[in-house]
Design brief:
Structural class: alpha+beta
CATH architecture of the largest domain: 2-Layer Sandwich
Mean pLDDT: 82
CATH topology of the largest domain: Chloramphenicol Acetyltransferase
Number of helices: 11
Strand content: 25-35%
Helix content: 10-25%
Radius of gyration: 28 Å
Strand order of the largest sheet: 17-26-25-24-20-23
Number of domains: 4
Length: 534
């Protein structure tokens, strides 16, 4: 029997993927575990493995093409099997999937009630575990609020509400697991009786899919709005994708607002209800160019270069597009400020020589900076935070991200529980993760969860620079090169070794005095490396 393989979600933030290369072609035999294709996500190019066996009957996304998650990627089945029926009914980005016919049921759904099922947050996820609920029954819920943290087979991820109302029911308690599409929660108007819906689900008389389909088919006007706004969500006039909630799309359509012009405040720039309601069109000034009425003739002979103007447009990779989007969001949402100090590196240079003289030991100056920052974060927990709007998250754990340059952009491998590592362990882990990143073999969970980030351009001779904060971190440290220069010691001018570091802080969470104290602690550790060995 033919099996449909959809574009997988290979990272927690992946919305679409590019087929970099097919390793199998139509007609090839497929064994379980064979690599079907290399797929470029927003973070890396990853191998996609087949979980089925048979013959590759159809390829839905050609090499170099982009496809949203969950759209037909390939079909595997028996050799010679007729798959015309699947191809005719398969959903695509251009052709929304036909609504399924619902079975007859007498169950009525109260107006405004939204039944939310356990989402599929990864390509292999069959069930999820609720790690924690961030909302409780009776709480007001706004569109874009984080309802819960859900643990998948790959990572623990935040689950966002696409609706507003009151949380009426929780179907899966903290620590419990449930299959994908099981009843997770119900949101609706305050005081609404949803006991009949809960009972129907428990008895298996009606599924979440059936209720959603019934609601869609019972409101043709809503369906028409969804079909019209689907076009808006697919692309804008520049060819890029727009992410907007269904409610935001409906309000935009009613008000005649072009979503291309609206800046989203939700996660990853997603447009939510308040963005559309608060949108004010920018006035466009038309500037006319005055015509040239006179010409100045030079009496001197001038040389006029002769040539042909030319350029080449290179398609941006998924990684480059995501980097641009996230850094733009960080720069324009987090109020950055910068603090720079110059460190005396003489003791660090001497200590590194002593440490590296030991057998099978190799420590870099960057490893020393990572260790110093991890220890300083323990003393200054305000820097180890995340801004969450109404709350500030104080991370009790310390996960330091180390920026690594790759061919297509920048990746940030994360050293988990960095404060518990020795200098040599930090060095080994940094080299291992950096190698994986450059070879595009790094896993998504190895780049998630940082609470602080370090960017080092010293090896390129850069003396001083500033970085954009890697949100949701509150700070990032930029590390420059070590340089020899005249310095004053004990009243005498001598040759010394110095290194400048710059701390970029989010002023919403880290005040200037706090950032300065953190840098003073980092200075104390790096200028006296023996204190980091205790």
């Amino acid at each position: 029997m033919a099996i449909v393989v959809n574009m997988p979600r290979l990272s927690d933030t992946m919305e679409e993927g590019v087929v970099a290369k097919w390793l199998k072609k139509v007609g090839d035999k497929i064994e379980e575990g064979d690599i079907l294709a290399e797929i470029e996500t927003d973070k890396a190019t990853m191998e996609f493995e087949s979980f089925n066996e048979g013959t590759l009957l159809h390829i839905g996304v050609q090499e170099g093409e982009t496809s949203p998650v969950d759209v037909l990627l390939a079909i595997i089945g028996d050799e010679g099997e007729d798959i015309s029926g699947i191809l005719n009914s398969a959903p695509s980005e251009e052709t929304p999937q036909e609504e399924t016919t619902t079975k007859t049921t007498s169950l009525s759904i109260p107006d405004g009630v939204q039944i939310i099922s356990m989402p599929r947050l990864s390509d292999t996820m069959e069930e999820g575990t609720v790690a924690s609920w961030l909302k409780q029954v009776g709480d007001k819920v706004e569109e874009g609020d984080i309802l819960a943290e859900i643990e998948t087979d790959k990572a623990t991820m935040e689950f966002e509400s696409f609706y507003e109302g009151v949380l009426l029911h929780i179907g899966v308690q903290e620590g419990e697991s449930a299959k994908v599409d099981s009843l997770l929660t119900i949101i609706g108007p305050e005081g609404t009786d949803v006991s009949s819906l809960i009972t129907a689900h428990k008895e298996g008389n009606i599924s979440t899919d059936t209720i959603e389909a019934k609601k869609k088919t019972s409101t043709p006007e809503t369906k028409q709005i969804e079909e019209q706004t689907a076009v808006i969500s697919q692309s804008n006039n520049t060819g890029g994708r727009i992410f907007a909630s269904p409610l935001a799309k409906k309000i935009a359509k009613d008000k005649g607002i072009n979503l291309v012009e609206v800046k989203g405040s939700g996660e990853n720039g997603r447009i939510v209800k308040k963005d559309v309601e608060n949108y004010t069109p920018d006035s466009v000034a038309v500037e006319t160019t005055p015509s040239l009425t006179t010409q100045t003739v030079s009496p001197l002979a001038t040389y006029t270069p002769v040539g042909e103007e030319s350029y080449e447009e290179v398609k941006n990779s998924q990684m480059r597009k995501v980097i641009a989007k996230r850094l733009g969001e960080s720069k324009f949402t987090a109020p950055h400020y910068y603090l720079t100090i110059e460190l005396d590196m003489d003791n660090a240079i001497s200590s590194r020589k002593t440490i590296n003289a030991l057998p099978e030991t190799k420590v870099s100056f960057n490893d020393m900076v990572v260790k110093a920052c991890a220890m300083a974060l323990k003393k200054h927990p305000q820097v180890n935070t995340s801004w969450n709007g109404d709350t500030t998250r104080y991370n009790q754990h310390i996960h330091v991200g180390v920026a690594v340059a790759v061919d297509d952009g920048l990746l940030v491998p994360v050293l988990k529980f960095t404060d518990q590592m020795s200098l040599t362990q930090i060095g080994e882990n940094v080299r291992d993760l950096a190698g994986k990143a450059r070879n595009k073999k790094i896993a998504p969970n190895e780049m998630e969860g940082s609470t602080f980030t370090i960017s080092n351009l010293g090896m390129f001779g850069i003396q001083e620079f500033t970085s954009i904060i890697n949100q949701p971190n509150s700070a990032i440290l930029s590390v420059g090169a070590i340089e020899q220069k005249p310095v004053v010691k004990d009243g005498l001018i001598v040759v010394g070794n110095t290194m400048k570091v710059t701390l970029a802080c989010d002023h919403r969470t880290v005040d200037g005095a706090t950032g300065a104290q953190f840098l003073q602690t980092v200075r104390a550790y790096i200028e006296n490396p023996v204190t980091m060995l205790a």
